[in-house]
Design goal:
1188 residues; mainly alpha; 47 helices; MMS22L_N; nucleus; DNA repair; MMS22-like; DNA damage
Length: 1188
């Protein structure tokens, strides 16, 4: 910091002070003196955070400045009644201190500032920095007080004014620019904080002092006289002009420095959006200084309000853009820089304005003079409009920067009390030239939000986005692009000035003028989307008053040559959004709005091969669905949205399940809304809704076996709503109720799943409790019960409780009343919470059995059996289920097939005695067996079971066998034949070499009752194993595998004994007759070894006797001709099975049998037989020796 005028600022020496004025304060302790600097106001940050609120009171700096600038400022500046003032630790007379010692006092000021700056540069701690600051402030305040109290009284103040002005200007000019202060940290403890605020105070009090001097000058003489005086008295040295232009220039220079200060942070941002987290005000003192500059400008020209401030700010913004400034006076241009370096001048200007206009001024202090001057910043001089116009003329501005500017501009417009439409029209001129642009953001290149809607967005989503877009509480979204933000600015402006028709006329005139036919024909799909979004916004705010004009433009688009399907979809979405807006506003739908929509829809339905056929239908359906959801009044013409197009959709079998689900949901919604108005007359407006559905929907529904199962839930919901609507209509719709129930319940061609779910959905509705369906269909209770049974059998999920309660109340209860009235109290159905379908079915069957057991009369029992058989006549439906899901490789298919076979087996097991009557043809049990188990094709040896059926039978086969055995096959040839066929057909197929996840359940039929085991084992042995067979077949092998599994699972003595009794004869017979290489020989040996693994088996007399009988029998059959194989069997049994029994057989029986053979041959002893017996004897000795 250097002063050019060294004769003004010299080294400090106390001797230069006159003896009259120089007193040491320590020599005058008896005087009551107050240091002015300790009470004067200066810049001081009140907190660490930058505040948007300026709290003003008389004790605040701004309040102090405002009062200083007011005419009655003497009272503010005179804070004591002493004749002396303490400045820089020296005592002076108030009236003469400045006039006699001005150079010395300014030299003191310079020295203090220099001392503070030196401490900062040397990084030394300056313990008295705050005192230095207060001393300088004390001098500045005294100078203001001197001007007010003494200079105003001087009849010739010209020389004093020039000296004070020049000295103060010289001090100010010696300071560094504010932007060059080293540190950016402004904590109260830092030296930089003190230096920064000292510089601020110098500039502030310089401007205040100049203003006061200028006020004195204006009171004493005019500017011309003063200038002439200055040129005469000070012709020998250079001085500055003491006039208003000089002060204006000084204010401009301070504004430039403050701008450069904020640019230090701004120029460091990497992305435009970083400014959201920055403030142009380095601390609260900067904020206050800007406000003080506005105050001074107001005082300088009170008739033109803030014109000077905004004019200077406009010059500053021009310097950012490196523009030539014509408004700067010639004598001031040397001090003003040619330009200010700024990386993004337009972004900075809007960012700065946003923060400036956002400042709030809070003042309720009665001590503040002229409080009308303390208003917030108001841009009444089109500063914002000028910047907007400039930036829209720049071609290379990035999307990110423009987006950030528009976000800030949105805030500025909302802050301005009055805003001309120039900003809107300027922005429109920019964007209308770029409608075909994507406005892609670098950070999110594929997120276009409202300005680039994707084809899957519904009209409601568009409308919701528009509402959010112009919401006052909305927060900016990072993915929104510049065009979206322009729409928000436009929308917010129109909402604010909605009743200003003149402004709207100006805006729409500029907009609509750009939509000529030639202009619209140049638009791409993206451009049409942008125009569409604009129209939606305008219609949302202005409503039907702009419909005609908008429809004119949309019709031009629709009639363009080679219009793409996507463009038609955009126009359709636009019109559908108009409908939603009208419904929300409770405005009726008229032909002008509906006609273009229905034209597009019908044309689309007539051409189902179009690429966007489904997109258009889906868009329309979703919107109409939203229309009815939003509708509180159905008399606004919503029925016109339904029509012939519905039958076209139903007739097209290629429409996806997703679209059809939306369609059925729409119909359900319409009917549920209509039901609230029942009873409805056919010819009324409400009746027209139902008539439309009856005419265009019901005849075209596909309810047969080709029904699309993916639409099950929504379609049944619609059909139940339709039924409830006709039921609630009473006599007005009785014929329609009968028609619907017959079509869906009585009709046997209806898809079984559709019927089941329809009945379930219908019964589940609480409103059904007030209607009786038997009025229309007498046997409907039986049909509903059958649907209930089918649901239990087929459904993957637990059936809801409503159908069970219905069946309990209407079926079981009727059975109890008719057949078991005397003991009705014992039939209390046990309710099992969260029970499975299988358990629920068993409970139902147990109830049937209880009722059957309580019937005593033969006639009643026969009648009951007939009713139960009718109830369970569901085999045709089950057959269709099996055919449908048997080849389905999904988990669902596997589960359903398993459920069917298992549940039918349970039915046969629980009530087989009711479903079957001996010697009666075509009983219900026979129907089940023939339908599921003994079809014609399974008897073909080459027929292969599907994976689902194989799994199902492996799970349920034992239930079928156990159930049929309960029907006494010993006394019923049909039952015995059925069991035999089931085992013969399925045992080889279900016992496979492939390892299944689920074990073969047939094993569970054994080890229960001896007679049952003997019956089944005997049947299996005789079916698959033959005597005197030399070569085994595949079925024999599978049979042996199963028998081995049985022995592995049940190795107790009782079961093994039964097994030996039934199978030993044929097993040994096969062991003798089969070829040596046959695989079954080893399997038979394994089974026999397993039989005698437990030594206790051999000790059982019955087993021992049976083995001896079998061996004796075999010797009679094989000793004469197959003696070699026979002795092999004996040796095998000796070594591996039952040596004790074989030994006994040798001693007591075998020798006699050999002698018998020799006698018959008549040759004496047969050497071969004797040798084989001797070998057997040797083996017996070895075995006995080993065992001993």
């Amino acid at each position: 910091m250097d002063f050019e005028d060294e004769d003004i600022f010299m080294d400090i020496d106390p001797k230069i002070l006159s003896e009259k004025d120089r007193w040491n304060k320590h020599d005058h302790d008896d005087l009551h003196l107050e240091n002015v600097g300790m009470t004067v106001k200066g810049f001081e940050c009140p907190s660490k955070h930058i505040s948007k609120d300026l709290q003003l009171c008389a004790n605040s700096l701004i309040g102090f400045v405002n009062n200083v600038l007011s005419p009655a400022s003497c009272a503010v500046l005179n804070d004591d009644s002493n004749d002396y003032v303490l400045l820089f630790d020296f005592l002076f007379e108030k009236s003469t201190a400045l006039s006699n010692n001005i150079h010395e006092l300014f030299n003191f000021t310079f020295t203090n500032i220099y001392q503070l700056e030196s401490s900062l540069n040397s990084q030394d701690k300056c313990g008295n920095s705050k005192k230095i600051n207060q001393s300088i402030l004390g001098f500045f305040k005294y100078m203001l007080s001197y001007v007010d109290n003494y200079l105003k009284c001087d009849p010739n103040p010209q020389e004093s004014i020039v000296i004070i002005w020049n000295n103060f200007n010289q001090l100010k000019s010696s300071l560094k620019p504010l932007s060059l202060i080293g540190s950016t940290t402004l904590s109260k403890q830092s030296l930089c904080h003190q230096q920064f605020h000292v510089y601020f105070n110098v500039h502030l009090y310089y401007l205040l002092t100049c203003y006061k001097l200028l006020s004195v000058q204006n009171e004493k003489m005019n500017s011309t006289q003063f200038t002439q005086y200055v040129s005469e008295i000070h012709s020998d040295r250079e001085t500055i002009n003491v006039d208003a232009n000089s002060l204006r220039n000084d204010i401009l220079l301070v504004m430039i420095q403050l701008t450069e200060l904020s640019l230090k942070c701004f120029n460091k941002i990497s992305q435009p959006e970083d400014v959201y987290h920055l403030s142009p005000f380095k601390c609260d003192c900067v904020t206050q200084f800007w406000f003080i500059l506005k105050l001074i400008c107001q005082k300088m020209d009170p008739h033109k309000s803030n014109e000077l401030f905004w004019k200077n700010l406009d010059i500053v913004f021009g310097l950012l853009e490196n523009e030539h400034q014509e408004d700067i006076g010639e004598d001031s241009k040397t001090d003003v820089p040619m330009y200010i370096t700024c990386s993004k001048p337009y972004l900075y200007s809007i960012w700065f304005l946003k923060h400036l206009l956002s400042l709030n001024i809070n003042s309720n202090d009665e001590l503040i003079q002229s409080p009308e001057n303390l208003e917030k910043f108001i841009d009444n001089f089109d500063c914002t409009e000028k910047i907007t116009k400039k930036l829209t003329n720049v071609d290379n501005i990035s999307e990110n920067e423009l987006r950030t500017i528009l976000t800030l501009l949105d805030g500025i417009i909302s802050l301005k009390e009055t805003c001309k439409p120039d900003i809107i029209t300027t922005l429109w001129e920019y964007f209308q030239k770029r409608l075909n642009s994507n406005f892609v953001l670098k950070s999110t290149p594929f997120a276009y939000t409202l300005s680039c809607l994707n084809n899957n967005r519904s009209a409601l989503e568009v409308l919701t986005h528009v509402e959010q877009l112009i919401s006052f509480v909305r927060k900016p979204k990072s993915e929104e692009n510049s065009y979206t933000l322009f729409l928000r600015i436009l929308g917010m402006y129109l909402m604010k000035y909605n009743h200003e028709q003149r402004l709207w006329n100006q805006i729409k005139g500029r907009m609509y003028s750009k939509f000529s036919q030639s202009k619209l024909s140049t638009l791409t799909e993206q451009g049409i989307q942008h125009v569409s979004n604009l129209f939606i916004l305008l219609f949302y705010i202005k409503g039907n008053q702009e419909l005609v004009k908008i429809q004119t433009f949309l019709n031009i688009i629709l009639t363009m040559k080679d219009i793409s399907p996507t463009t038609r979809e955009i126009v359709l979405r636009t019109n559908l959004t108009f409908i939603l807006i009208n419904i929300r506003n409770n405005v009726s739908l008229d032909a002008r709005l509906l006609s273009p929509i229905m034209n597009i829809l019908n044309e689309n339905c007539d051409h189902p091969n179009k690429s966007n056929y489904e997109q258009v239908i889906k868009l329309y359906l979703l919107t109409v669905n939203d229309v009815f959801k939003e509708s509180e009044d159905l008399t606004l013409g919503q029925n016109l949205l339904l029509g012939h197009w519905m039958s076209k959709i139903l007739s097209n079998t290629k429409v996806s399940s997703n679209v059809m689900n939306i369609f059925y949901n729409l119909l359900s919604l319409v009917l549920s809304k209509l039901r609230q108005y029942q009873p409805i007359e056919r010819d009324s407006q409400m009746g027209m809704y139902f008539s439309c559905i009856l005419e265009h929907v019901l005849p075209h529904l596909r309810t047969d076996f080709n029904f699309n199962i993916d639409t099950m839930e929504t379609m049944t919901e619609f059909l139940s709503e339709l039924t409830l609507f006709t039921l609630s209509g009473g006599v007005n719709y009785k014929s329609e109720t009968f028609q619907i129930l017959n079509m869906l319940i009585v009709n046997t061609n209806v898809n079984f799943e559709l019927k089941m779910n329809y009945v379930k959905c219908l019964i589940s509705n609480e409103d059904m409790h007030s209607f009786s369906l038997t009025t229309f269909i007498p046997n409907i209770e039986i049909i509903i019960t059958q649907c209930y049974l089918l649901s239990l059998i087929v459904s993957e999920h637990t059936i809801n409780d409503s159908m069970g309660k219905y069946v309990e109340a209407h079926c079981l209860q009727r059975f109890r009343q008719n057949y078991a009235a005397s003991v009705r109290s014992q039939y209390v159905q046990e309710q099992v919470l969260n029970s499975s379908n299988e358990e629920t079915l068993k409970q139902f069957l147990r109830d049937i059995n209880l009722i059957n057991a309580s019937i005593t009369g033969t006639e009643a029992r026969t009648q009951f059996h007939n009713e139960v058989n009718t109830l369970f006549s569901i085999e045709d439906t089950l057959k269709h289920v099996v055919v449908t899901y048997d080849k389905n490789n999904s988990a669902t298919g596997k589960t359903i097939i398993t459920n069917v076979f298992t549940c039918v087996a349970i039915i046969v097991d629980y009530i087989g005695g009711i479903l079957y009557k001996k010697s009666k043809p075509n009983t219900q049990l026979q129907c089940y067996i023939d339908t599921l188990l003994l079809q014609f094709q399974v008897r073909n040896i080459d027929f292969k079971l599907s994976g689902n059926t194989t799994h199902a039978l492996r799970v349920s086969f034992h239930i079928y066998v156990n159930a049929l055995i309960k029907l006494e096959p010993v006394h019923d040839n049909y039952i015995a034949r059925v069991i035999k066929e089931l085992i013969q057909i399925y045992l080889p197929r279900l016992i496979n070499k492939i390892q299944y996840e689920t074990p073969f359940s047939f094993n569970r039929s054994f080890n229960e009752v001896e007679s049952k085991d003997m019956f089944l084992l005997d049947m299996i042995i005789n079916l698959f194993l033959r005597k005197k067979c030399k070569v085994s077949d595949k079925n024999s092998q599978e049979c042996l595998v199963f028998l081995h599994e049985l022995l592995n699972e049940y190795n107790n003595v009782d079961f093994v004994s039964r097994f030996i009794k039934t199978s030993l004869d044929i097993l040994l017979n096969n062991l003798i007759s089969l070829n040596e290489v046959d695989v079954c020989r080893n399997k038979i040996k394994t089974i026999l070894t397993k039989c005698f693994t437990n030594p206790m088996v051999q000790t059982i007399p019955a087993v021992k006797n049976h083995v001896l009988i079998v061996l004796t029998k075999l010797s009679n059959e094989n000793l004469a001709f197959s003696f070699g194989q026979y002795f092999q069997v004996l040796n095998f049994l000796l070594h591996s099975c039952c040596p004790g029994i074989v030994t006994e057989f040798r001693k007591n029986i075998l020798i006699q049998k050999i002698k018998t053979v020799e006698m018959k041959r008549g040759v004496g002893e047969d050497k071969v037989l004797r040798n084989l017996m001797e070998q057997l004897d040797r083996n017996i000795k070895k075995v006995l020796l080993v065992r001993s």
